[in-house]
Amino acid sequence: MDRQRLTEYTEAQRRTKDFVCQDEREREILTNMYFAACSWIGGLANCLYDYEETDDEYINAQDQLDNHDGLVGDVKAMCLSGFYGCGLEGPRRAYQIHYHLAGNEFIDRCAEAVVTAMGH
């Protein structure tokens, strides 16, 4: 991990205190998962401030925020298909193809921990 990514990991770890990563690959996944969740859940939360409660955008965002399993699935999919960091979003990077080596169980637990830590 470079210095920037290590700083991002530190923030992700601070927010998900009880979630333990065993190696650098798992730390990278947690970091990407956390910032994917910040992007997705933060965007949905912004809709609640930007629209009236009767607007379709507000209702859709609220429905998605109330669906824990849906948020977990969305954040997991975003993490596995893109690169996320502090103020960064972009296409998946070449080294991310190895995320699957951490195993589906770890990735599922990571997504669950991140969404739960964000209060959803």
Q: How confident overall, as mean pLDDT?
A: 94
Helices, by number, come to 5
Task: Output the radius of gyration.
Answer: 14 Å
Order of helical and strand elements: HHHHEEH
Q: Return the structural class.
A: mainly alpha
- How are strands sequenced across the largest beta sheet? 1-2
Q: What fraction strand? A: 5-15%
Counting copies of identical and different chains, the oligomeric state is single chain
Low-confidence stretches: none
Helix content: 55-70%
Please give the domain count. 1
How many beta strands in the DSSP annotation?
Answer: 2
Distance from N terminus to C terminus (CA atoms, Å) equals 29 Å
Largest sheet: 2 strands, antiparallel
Q: What global shape is seen?
A: elongated
Could you characterize what this model shows?
With 120 residues, the protein is mainly alpha-helical. The protein has one domain. 65% of the residues lie in helices and 7% in strands. It has a two-stranded antiparallel sheet with strand order 1-2. Helix 2 packs across helix 4 (68-81). The model has no long low-confidence stretch (mean pLDDT 94).
Question: What does the secondary structure layout of this molecule look like, with pairings?
Answer:
Elements: H1 3-15, H2 24-50, H3 56-65, H4 68-81, E1 82-85, E2 88-91, H5 104-117
Antiparallel strand pairs: 1-2
